[in-house]
Specification:
The chain is mostly helical. The longest helix has 37 residues.
Length: 178
């Protein structure tokens, strides 16, 4: 049975192709509105899962997938449409792929794996969202570029932080095995 938080996450997944269609049609205001609704739904499903004590494995898997699909698809498409530089899309998507590969490796080697977003990761996500809002709302290019550079720096730092945490975790696992 699907609970309310998971249903909201599924709705967020449905918003992704609609948002992409609006971007392709050049209807940036509507894409921005759907992006904001998707972001608010992310906050709402997390709040409801905690408040209603309805955290599930399905939600733990679907929620980050929905977040990454939404952000990565908008970054890729925005770069393709030349709304933002290609390199920021490459940095954002590469970090997500890097984290996914690291998660798979850690899952393979570790007996127990705790998945919690780090503070740098939360800051990165916030700036990635702010960047999309700035780009789609048509702010002046100089402001957008400052936000893009901050997002790039945080995204790279967050990826390196996850690398450090993963290597540290693997080292601890090796020590416990001895």
């Amino acid at each position: 049975m699907i609970n309310i938080p998971n249903f909201i996450t599924l709705l967020r997944l449905i918003l992704i192709p609609i948002t992409i269609i609006y971007l392709l049609q050049g209807r940036y205001e509507l894409a921005l509105i759907l992006f904001i609704i998707a972001g608010l739904s992310d906050a709402l499903d997390g709040f409801l899962a905690r408040a209603l004590k309805q955290k599930t494995l399905l939600g733990a898997i679907l929620d980050p997938i929905a977040d990454k699909l939404l952000l990565d698809s908008i970054y890729i498409l925005s770069a393709y449409l030349e709304l933002m530089p290609d390199w920021i899309a490459v940095i954002v998507v590469s970090r997500d792929i890097f984290i996914l590969i690291g998660f798979i490796i850690l899952t393979f080697f570790k007996k127990r794996l705790e998945v919690r977003p780090s503070i740098p990761s939360k800051m990165t996500t916030a700036f990635q969202i702010i960047t999309v809002i700035c780009v789609l709302s048509g702010l002046p290019q100089d402001i957008v570029m400052v936000v893009i550079y901050l997002t790039a720096g945080l995204t790279i730092f967050s990826g390196l932080h996850y690398l450090y945490q993963g290597l540290k975790s693997l080292s601890e696992e090796e020590l416990e095995a001895e």
